[in-house]
């Protein structure tokens, strides 16, 4: 196929949600996460799951870290980079009151080739009133979003830790369509 006939590029993401870090410590025995991948209108998923739920996990030797090593793999095709895929992560705990929210995180999947380690803040909505804050503290149940994809909007939130994602990206025909996704370090040093 001639370069002038190429109208779409392919992007492959392969990696894992490595761990969740709670700086104040983990006070729950069972933590799990759910993820959704969101993308723009010109993007078409070719393979992989666009949502999933992890296993139950707990902190080990490090009382602030819960390790998941939860694999994620997706392949997309698109005609332009608008609406680049994002990973929306919801962290929950199972306790006597049922499933309780611990936070949300939004991760832009890497736009450059190679492997990246991404640390994204974990946030959760704040209760609207003092009574709501007191009840959330007492029961451990914080307000939840009806749709976690609302993270793209402006919300009143509080920080509650971070999520670390290791992800690699491989592309096909992206450069042929005029997009440069070569890492900056390689632009200066690879051709010397």
UniProtKB/TrEMBL annotation:
Subcellular location: Cytoplasm, Cytoskeleton, Cilium basal body
Keywords carried by this UniProt record: Cell projection, Cilium biogenesis/degradation, Cytoplasm, Cytoskeleton
Predominant subcellular localization, coarse grouping: cytoplasm
Entry keyword Cytoplasm: yes
Superkingdom of origin: Eukaryota
Keyword Transcription regulation: no
GO cellular component labels: MKS complex
GO biological process: cilium assembly
InterPro entries linked: C2_B9-type_dom (IPR010796)
Entry similarity comment: Belongs to the B9D family.
Protein name (Swiss-Prot/TrEMBL): B9 domain-containing protein 1
Organism: Papilio xuthus (Asian swallowtail butterfly)
């Amino acid at each position: 196929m001639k370069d002038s006939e190429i109208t779409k590029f392919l992007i492959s993401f392969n990696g894992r949600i490595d761990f969740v870090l709670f700086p104040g410590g983990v006070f729950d025995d069972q933590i799990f996460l759910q993820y959704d991948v969101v993308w723009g209108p010109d993007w078409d998923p070719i393979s992989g799951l666009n949502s999933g739920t992890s296993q139950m996990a707990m902190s080990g030797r490090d009382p602030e870290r819960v390790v998941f090593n939860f694999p994620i793999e997706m392949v997309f095709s698109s005609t332009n980079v608008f609406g680049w895929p994002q990973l929306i992560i919801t962290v929950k705990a199972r306790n006597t009151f049922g499933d309780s929210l611990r936070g949300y995180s939004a991760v832009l999947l890497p736009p450059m080739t190679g492997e990246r380690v991404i640390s994204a803040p974990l946030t959760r909505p704040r209760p609207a009133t003092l009574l709501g804050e007191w009840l959330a503290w007492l029961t451990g149940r914080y307000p939840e979003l009806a749709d976690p994809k609302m993270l793209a909007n402006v919300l009143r939130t509080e920080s509650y830790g971070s999520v670390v994602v290791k992800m690699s990206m491989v592309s096909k025909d992206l450069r042929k369509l005029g997009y440069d996704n070569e890492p900056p370090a390689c632009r200066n040093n690879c051709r010397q």
